From TrEMBL:
Alphabetical keyword list: Acyltransferase, Transferase
Listed name of the protein: N-acetyltransferase domain-containing protein
Keyword Transport: no
Family stated for the protein in its record: Belongs to the acetyltransferase family.
Keyword Transferase on entry: yes
Organism: Morus notabilis
Alphabetized GO MF terms: acyltransferase activity, transferring groups other than amino-acyl groups
InterPro entries with a match to the protein in the record: Acyl_CoA_acyltransferase (IPR016181), GNAT_dom (IPR000182), Plant_NAT (IPR052810)
PROSITE patterns, per the entry: GNAT
Chain ranges of the N-acetyltransferase domain: 10-190
Length: 413
């Protein structure tokens, strides 16, 4: 019949790298068209659409195709891991007096958590319910694999994304961490002479993390897998000069038994080998100004000018994770570690270093960053996937108040 509207069939299915790569890359390109006349950040996944979840214990990707011609119109990625969702006192402490309870060791409470990343719908096929179907398809896989909660990160001002997840998919606003980004300058950053930085073995790093940070929200139970991953470039411990050195270091056990008054730790993850970033939409004036700062910085490095890297070409980034510390001078230790991470990134040709921490993190102000490059409030939304799970010691995690710190897994950055 003339003028008859034929409704095209939408199919949601598992991603096939042998046949779907070009279609997925085409959707990614169409989705990353920035607003006219404004700076936009573009991501190149280096030919691997699953790269940002591939290092997780379990991962999955769905694609949406429409019509007899099987046009690729959307995709979604997800992964599952086990993380800390709260803490409890040891059973021994519960059966003793109040003094024993005060000295009791807190133990982590774990849950199986799913993460949604990289939901994309082609601009020409939006407002057709495709995004909702992709989310529901991914949640079905989460439930089949025993995940108790699902969460995602989105920009606070991305109203379309926030509405989809909070109004249609049943997610609630949960945490608002800060993404802090610092450019890598043409000069090395000076690390305080009053601080000694020690590179730890993966075993020592794991011991310190499990002993001091395992009750931190979102701490991954498989931290050993993260630390031993080839993308982890190292874990670094900062201590006051004279307390320990690389030569006198005899292991984490003794350190934990008698730590200095102040110390800090962080690990570095190499996202440069996973994806690259590029800023587009910059005016010729901004490009020229940025280039001028680099020329001056290279010619006069002793001035330590805050030069702007060439963000207008693809650049790599290092992610600092597991950042934490103790003591009245922990902030000084953190600054030294960030300087170490900056210099490592410079040696490896990266354009920026970044981290993500709780907006309530006590050490947040010690982390060098440029406000213009950073995001003061990222938004994490969460959803309980089923009501048949035990509330355990924590209760419904989605209703829990935020703690001071969170552990951001670099495998999902």
């Amino acid at each position: 019949m003339v003028g008859e509207v034929v409704e095209k069939v939408l199919v949601i299915r598992e991603y096939d790298p042998k046949t779907d790569l070009s279609g997925v890359e085409d959707v990614e390109r169409r989705c990353e068209v920035g607003p006219s006349g404004k700076l936009s950040l573009f991501t190149d996944l280096l030919g691997d659409p699953i790269c940002r979840v591939r290092n997780s214990p379990a991962f999955f990707m769905l694609v949406a195709e429409m019509g007899d011609e099987k046009e690729m119109v959307g995709m979604i990625r997800g992964c599952i891991k086990t993380v800390t969702c709260g803490k409890k006192l040891s059973r021994k402490a519960k059966n003793n007096n109040s003094e024993t309870i005060a000295k009791a060791k807190a133990l982590p409470v774990y849950t199986k958590l799913a993460y949604i990343l990289g939901l994309r719908v082609s601009p020409s096929h939006r407002r057709m319910g495709i995004g909702l179907k992709l989310v529901r398809g991914m949640e079905e896989w989460f439930r089949e694999n025993g995940a108790e909660y699902s969460y995602l990160a989105t920009e606070n001002d991305n109203q379309a994304s926030v509405n989809l997840f909070t109004h249609k998919c049943g997610y609630s606003r949960f945490r608002t961490p800060s993404i802090l980004v610092n450019p890598v300058f043409a000069h090395r950053v000076k690390v305080s002479s009053r601080v000694t930085v020690i590179r730890l073995s993966p075993r020592d790093a794991e011991s310190i993390y499990r002993t001091r940070f395992s009750t931190t929200e979102f701490f991954p139970r498989d931290i050993d897998s993260v630390l031993n991953n080839k993308l982890t470039l190292g874990t670094f411990l900062a201590v006051p000069r004279g307390s320990y050195s690389a030569e006198s270091w005899i292991g984490s056990d003794q350190f934990l038994a008698d730590p200095p008054e102040s110390w800090a730790i962080l690990s570095v993850w190499n996202t440069k080998d996973v994806f690259t970033l590029e800023v587009k939409g910059a005016s010729r004036v901004k490009r020229t100004l940025a280039r001028t700062t680099r020329v001056i910085d290279r010619a006069l490095p002793w001035l330590r000018l805050p030069s702007v890297p060439d963000f207008f070409r693809p650049f790599g980034l290092h992610f600092m994770y597991g950042l934490g510390g103790e003591g009245p001078r922990a902030g000084r230790m953190v600054r030294a570690l960030c300087g170490q991470a900056h210099n490592l990134a410079k040696e490896r040709g990266c354009g920026a270093v970044a981290t993500e921490v709780s907006s309530r993190e006590p050490l947040r102000l010690a982390i060098p960053h440029w406000k213009r490059l950073s995001c003061a409030e990222d938004l994490w939304c969460i959803k309980r996937l089923g009501e048949d799970y035990s509330d355990g010691s924590v209760g419904d995690w989605t209703k829990s108040p935020p703690g001071l710190s969170i552990f951001v897994d670099p495998r999902e950055f």
